[in-house]
Amino acid sequence: MDTVAAEGLLSASWLVIALPLLGAAVLLLGGRRTDAWGHLLGTATVVAAFVLGLLCTVQLAGVEGHAVDAELFTFVSTGSLDVGAGLLVDPLSATFMLLITGVGSLIHVYSIGYMAHDPRRRRFFAYLNLFVAAMLLLVLGDNYVALYVGWEGVGLASYLLIAFWHDRPSAATAAKKAFVMNRVGDVGLALAIFVMFAQLGTVSYEGVFGGVGALAGGTLTALGLLLLLGACGKSGQFPLQAWLPDAMEGPTPVSALIHAATMVTAGVYLIARSAPIYDLTPTARGVVLAVGAITLLYGAIVGCAYDDIKKVLAYSTVSQIGYMFLAVGLGPVGYAAAIAHLLTHGFFKAGLFLGAGSVMHAMGDEVDMRRFGGLARRLPVTFVTFGLGYLALIGFPFLSGYWTKDAIIEAALDRGDWAGWLLGGVAVLGAGLTAFYMTRLMLMTFFGRPRWTEDQHPHESPSVMTAPMVVLAVGSVAAGFLLVQVFPLDTWLEPVFGVPEEAEHVVAPALVGLVVTAVMALGVLAAWLFVGRREVPEVAPARVSPVVRAARRALYADTVNESLFMRPGQWLTRALVWVDNRGVDGAVNGLAATLGGSSSRLGRAQTGFVRSYALGMLGGAVVVAGALLAVTAG
Amino acid sequence: MTDVAIGTGEAVVFWILGPVALAGALGMVFSRNAVHSALWLVTTMLSLGVFYVVQSAPFLGAVQIIVYTGAIMILFLFVLMLVGRDSSDSVVETLRGQRVAATVLGVGFAGLVGAGIARATRDTGIEGLGDAGGTGNIETIAGVLFTRYLLAFEVTSALLITAAVGAMVLAHIEREPGSRQTQKELSRARFLTDRPQTLPGPGVFARANSVATGALLPDGRTAEDSLATGIEPREVEQMPRPTGRAQLGSPDAALGTTDEPR
Amino acid sequence: MTIEAPDLSLAALAPLLFVFGAACIGVLVEAFGPRDSRHPVQVAVALVGTLGGLVTTVLLAGTREVTAGGALAVDGAGLFLQATIAGLGALSLLLFAERNLDPARSAFVVSAAVPAGSVRDRELLTVQRVQTEVYPLATFAIGGMMLFVTANDLLVMFVALEVLSLPLYLISGLARRRRLLSQEAAVKYFLLGSFASAFFLYGVALVYGATGTVRLAGVREAVAGAEGGTLVVLGLALLVVGLLFKASVAPFHTWTPDVYQGAPTPVTAFMAACTKVAAFGAILRLLYVAFGTEEWTWRPLVYGVAIVSMVIGAVLGLTQTDLKRMLAYSSVAHAGFLLTGVLGLPATGDAAGSGLPAVMFYLLAYGLTTLGAFAVLTLVRSGEGEATHLSQWAGLAQRSPLTAAVMSLFLLALAGIPLTSGFTGKFAVFRAAIEDGAWPLALVALLASAVAAFFYLRVIVLMYFSEPAVDGPTVGVPGLPTTIVLAVTAAATLLLGIVPGAVLGLADRAAIFVG
Questions:
Q1: Start and end of every NADH-Ubiquinone oxidoreductase (complex I) chain 5 N-terminal domain (chain A) (predicted)?
Q2: pLDDT at residue A548, rounded to an integer
Q3: A435 pLDDT more than 90
Q4: Do B105 and A609 touch (CB under 8 A)?
């Protein structure tokens, strides 16, 4: 990939990151005096970043090779040592930049209404801004260290936002869980960066991708797997998926922005960005495929059983990101499809979450769908926008999801071997399950008999909240068509991923579309049969089949985690704490005591009398003269 | 290098004044009385001045004696006298081990440096001045001062200005404008009081010459006026009272002092 | 007899002439200026002088010449350090000129000669006049420091040492509040400083005796010709003692905490920032120009002294409860860190090692940071002046978040946390030491930094995570001068941490000694 030095507006691309960061800094440092206008500033900085990003992208389109390296600064450049950092604006990062700032702007606007009554609104906006800045750094950095810094930054912001209502024990626990599981992934990423630096002596994308060809196969596979571990942690992929649904304890705009549209797709970005590494290691790529396939089925199955509207959406996210992993695992044919699905998913999932937030807003923060019902009339705007998002998600023909999901399924089938058939089958099955659980969600929430309690008076949300929903709904409808047919994303991304070879279609695309649509229709029908026709009980029925019971418990993922990792982990922790208290703390405390003691003992020499100071100097002079004489004599 | 021998006279001068200079230095350090210290230092400086002269540096010798001994040290003595020679600090050492350590380190340092210099100069021969003196002492010094050491010489002026300003800062109390009366006003004010004449000096008719001894009035009381302000009257060791027959009929007896006769 | 006038390059002397000229004008203003307008005029004169010095050094950039009959070496390193001193000096003078913080409108006494605690002294406590001699005196000190780092001659070096020291002794004793402590500090500094000067002078005499010259270049030639031997080594030892005292390197640091604590805080800031630069400038020049060929003799010494200084500074800093004393021990530890960079000097004269630029950069970064830290100390006050006791800073972040944030920045920089100038500086000097094979020293330095970080961070923890005391100190609103100082130093601390490339490059290019 050839990059050119940044010129004109592109050399100001650092401003895209700096603006939200500035907002966060002002809000956090400014204290209470910014309470009155803090949320407006926060929103304005992100909108400004979006506008700037858009202009940058337009200019980028005119640049030869579509890739620009904006030298940010040289930290140290003296002789042998050259440490610096820069930004890489290429089609891939520009796409993410627009997604992050675009969806980010909408969600900021939405939050103005959603958080209007929260006393800590300013802090919320500060964290959101911080998140946007970190996420932009993650995608715009031109080296793995910048990516890692952004990676940890979004992790921090996510942790702070999940625990935003930290007076709720469940929120605090969820934040802790997210934090711990992300750490597991981060270790993988950190190790991968260490390996790169140790083997190649550089961490910049340019240097790494230029040098990977010379690495041994084992190292490459290890590198690929370590990066994958990092990606799984951040994107909630199997086996590190359990934190993502719990993370819904955070305010809904957070779920929409961080845990649906942007941060959780960082793993996809990482793997797509590291394409040159994966291109050389089929083993690691195979693992990516497996992870994607398992996760997409897992998320879809579990999504069918939950009654909590946000958790259903969360498992849906897990499942959809599984699609993206599947796509990037397919190699060059799948990269563009993955990014396209990522974009459309960003639109409709964010829209769905905002819709869910609007429903919760109306129902007094109720999340149990068994207590909803018949909301279509009370919340018309929410219903329509949510419905469009729903149709896009299940892949209703000619809406966004249809274009991008089909592309992935086609790409999987085009492998032609048994694995292709298997993966394609899984993906089609996933599409059917998606249609099932999403239809179930729609039916339970918007149709049927109202099952509200007495004191609930659902009402439509203010326009500051509905406006972003409308925008996102438009996106959910049109984005797929635009990205696949009007402005083909794969052409735009060619400078990054290269031109994929024209694959022979094993199954005709039209046939694939038909089959997928048919399976989707089956899913919808099944949902209507099981849910829509009958009365929805207000309490989940207890006597259900083992399959449903397993799904309700997230296929025992938490149980497995608990018995395999948490219990032994706690055991180990206890043992370590014991060792720490007795051994390490003893040593540390001993050291501290020794230092403190010697400090006060030495301090006694500081008597305050000049003659004693002079004596000390004389002693020093004797030692200095003696030492010099000894050195010359010896 | 010309082979130069040291004349007998020079050797004699060195061996006499060398110990004197050294004794002066030690005396200066170990004297408990500040005036004595200053005088010991004068001794050392005078000896050094003679050394300079003997070593064909009459100008330096003269400067040493006139400036250091004559001006600076005498100024020191004036100050010491003004401050009062008995305002000395306590010489009791309160820090444990300070004296021992100081002695050990001092001797150690002297030994180290002394041994080092002795070792380094052991084989150094005697070297005459040659024509280092050039056309004469003063011209040569001037030449060096205004060429090679010009910068050091000029910058020394900054040092002197600083010293002068510093002395002013530490010692000079600026009077508030208007707070100082003119001679005329002072004079008027004086004549409005009960005592227009000058105050009696201290120690008049007394038997001690310290400023802390008040003047004695004819009736033997102490004249409080005679004490300078700021000095507390106190018992000062007085000369013994005259005793014995020879003094009978002296003014003391005639005026009938209040003291008991011994 | 005719005397040939020595070559005097007025251009090369211009920075010094500017500063000394301003000082002399200041003295004249003191003598003849009307009392009411003296303060602003003095401030203006002093600032014009130092800034003029700064500008002229910048204009001289690239000059390499030996002038004034060989007594002055105007070269890259010298100009860099001169500019550093002039800039830091101007900032310190701004701190001197602050009129808003103290209720009596200055940190300096009205009349130093009035006995402390007397009736007159109490009367004068609230009078707004100031002993304006501090400005010319400080300007003289700055001039002396600028001469110190370019002195190419042991005699000039000694005179410069005195020119820079004498005013410092004086202005240390001019605090308006806690005057006895301040006067005690001045006397201690004077006595110990004279003691150190005596060592230095004895060293000059021995070196002159051994080599017959006081020119640094002459000494180098004589030493390379193996003349002198023991005498030269003894002389070097004594010279080094005198310089290490000024740089407050342990074991010659004992004056530092007492004087830093007693002196008026602006003066402490001035000493901590500028004196350190000047002393290290002279150490570098002496060791590099005069004794560069004899590196093997002084290397073990500097090695040992650096370790002692770092350890003593870091360990003793742990138990300090007064912030000024704590910063004093921090200064001792930093002197040790700087010495690790001095070790990175190349043994041969021509190749530019990484030690010299590293030390130069460190001096600039440390000077700015410590100046800022002391400037923050002047803001936090209780009824009897500055509140420097650690307990009084508890919960400061709640009273004044901005002050606490700025102080935290400076403390983090002193601790050497990345993205601050302190990190870059430490990185540079440690790297220089490691490149020169002194990695055990760098290891000790890292451990000492870790220990020292504890007491810096303790202050931050105290400011942010403690409940404020009920009758705690107030945070004054600084006037323009202190605001400028805080803004410049904080910005520089950040910039030198984030984008140090330009300044590091400048130091790299400037790292040349002539003479």
A1: 76-125
A2: 66
A3: no
A4: no
Residue ranges per structural domain of chain C: 10-510
Please give the full DSSP string across A36-60, using - where no structure is assigned. TTHHHHHHHHHHHHHHHHHHHHHHH
- Chain A's closest residue to C428, CA to CA, is A76
pLDDT digits (tens, 9 = 90+) for C331-370: 999 999 999 988 876 544 444 567 888 899 999 999 999 9
Kindly list the domain boundaries of chain B, sorted by start residue.
7-86, 133-171, 198-257
pLDDT computed for residue B3 by the predictor: 58
Of A21, A609, A628, A632, which to mutate for an interface test with C (greatest number of C Cβ within 10 Å)? A628
* Among C146, C148, C163, C156, CA closest to C16: C146
Q: How far apart are CA A185 and CA A268, in angstroms?
A: 14
C70 inside 8 A of chain B by CB:
yes
DSSP string, C341-410: HHHTS-SSSSS--SHHHHHHHHHHHHHHHHHHHHHHHHHEEETTEE--BGGGGTTHHHH-HHHHHHHHHH
**Could you give the 3-state DSSP secondary structure of residue A81?**
strand
Number of helices and strands in chain A (H, E)? 28, 3
Q: Give the three-state DSSP class for A634.
A: coil
Chain B partners within 8 Å of A607 (Cβ): 95
pTM: 0.70
Min CA distance, C73 vs chain A (Å)?
26
Burial of residue B219 (number of CB atoms within 10 Å: 0-12, 13-18, 19+): exposed
Q: Do residues A121 and A39 make contact, with C-beta atoms less than 8 angstroms apart?
A: yes
d(CA A57, CA A47): 15
| Measured CA angle at A252 (ends A246, A257), to 5 deg | 95
Q: Topology of domain B7-86, per CATH?
A: Four Helix Bundle (Hemerythrin (Met), subunit A) (1.20.120)
Q: Is A624 on the interface with B (CB under 8 A)?
A: no
Q: Each residue of A565-578: pLDDT tens digit? A: 667 767 777 776 77
Residue of B nearest to C207 (CA): B117
Tell me, letter by letter, the H, E, C secondary structure of chain B. CCECCCCHHHHHHHHHHHHHHHHHHHHHHHCCCHHHHHHHHHHHHHHHHHHHHHCCCHHHHHHHHHHHHHHHHHHHHHHHHHHCCCCCCCCCCCCCCHHHHHHHHHHHHHHHHHHHHHHHHCCCCCECCCCCCCCCHHHHHHHHHHCCCHHHHHHHHHHHHHHHHHHHHHHCCCCCCCCCCCHHHHHHHHHHCCCCCCCCCCCCCCCCCCCCCCEECCCCCEEHHHCCCCCCCCCCCCCCCCCCHHHCCCHHHHHCCCCCCC
Pick from C312, C424, C408, C309: nearest CA to C366: C424
CA nearest C138: which of C37, C229, C264? C264
What are the CA-CA distances from residue C11 to residues C56, C64, C133, C273 (Å)?
9, 12, 29, 27
C359 vs C81: CA distance, rounded Å:
10
pLDDT category at A316 given cuts 50, 70, 90 is: confident
The average pLDDT across B218-232 equals: 74
DSSP element (H, E) containing A71 = strand A68-78
**What's the pLDDT score for residue C364?**
95
Helical H segments across A13-120, by residue range: 14-30, 38-61, 91-114
Nearest-by-CA chain A residue for C262:
A608
φ and ψ at C381, to 5 degrees? -130, 150
- Chains with at least 3 CB pairs less than 8 angstroms from chain B: A, C
Reported as half-sphere exposure (CB side, CA atoms, 13 A), residue A446 has a value of 21
User: Which residue bears the tokens 């905490």?
Assistant: C257
- Quick: pLDDT tens for A373-423: 777 778 888 888 888 888 888 888 888 888 888 888 888 888 777 888 888
